[in-house]
């Protein structure tokens, strides 16, 4: 599905044979940001990539989490047009537990890290046996 899918590592085929299928084309979040800023755009039409490390990056940001998250959002939105036109599918894999209340967070190292700063509107889907994924379009607006 083009756009972004946010999901826990534990429910994917990377963690178990019957898990939710994501691409084995993996890269770190910072590498992904670097790649989408390349000219020419490095991903072919319909490409799928699995991006890891977002929860760790935001956790390591400590008190600067809002600033780092805003910077990431800005980078992703600045490339929304080409991500959308190339029908790029980006699986954002987190190691922590996703929680959706008033907004989306990930519990990482016993700390709730807000993901809504980056992904302001998400759609929630149960993909079987209470395994939940969250999706948003390339504009990060649901």
Helix content: 10-25%
Structural class by helix and strand composition: alpha/beta
Main sheet: strands, sense, barrel? 6 strands, mixed
Mean residue pLDDT: 95
Tally the helices.
4
Strand percentage lies at 25-35%
Low-confidence stretches: none
Strand order of the largest sheet: 2-3-4-1-9-8
Q: How does this structure look, described?
A:
The chain is of the alpha/beta class and 142 residues long. The chain has one domain. It has a 6-stranded mixed beta sheet. Strands 5-6-7 form a 3-stranded antiparallel beta sheet, with helices on one face. The two termini are 13 Å apart. Strand 5 (97-100) and strand 6 form a beta hairpin. The chain is 25% helix and 30% strand. It is built from 4 helices and 9 strands; from the N terminus they run E-E-H-E-H-H-H-E-E-E-E-E-E.
Topology readout:
Layout (H helix, E strand, L loop, with lengths): L2 E6 L17 E3 H8 L11 E5 L1 H7 L4 H14 L1 H6 L3 E6 L2 E4 L3 E5 L2 E4 L8 E4 L5 E5 L6
Parallel strand pairs: 1-4, 2-3, 3-4
Antiparallel strand pairs: 1-9, 5-6, 6-7, 8-9
Brief overview, please?
The chain is α/β, with parallel strands linked by helices.
Which descriptors apply to this entry?
single chain, 142 residues, alpha/beta, 4 helices
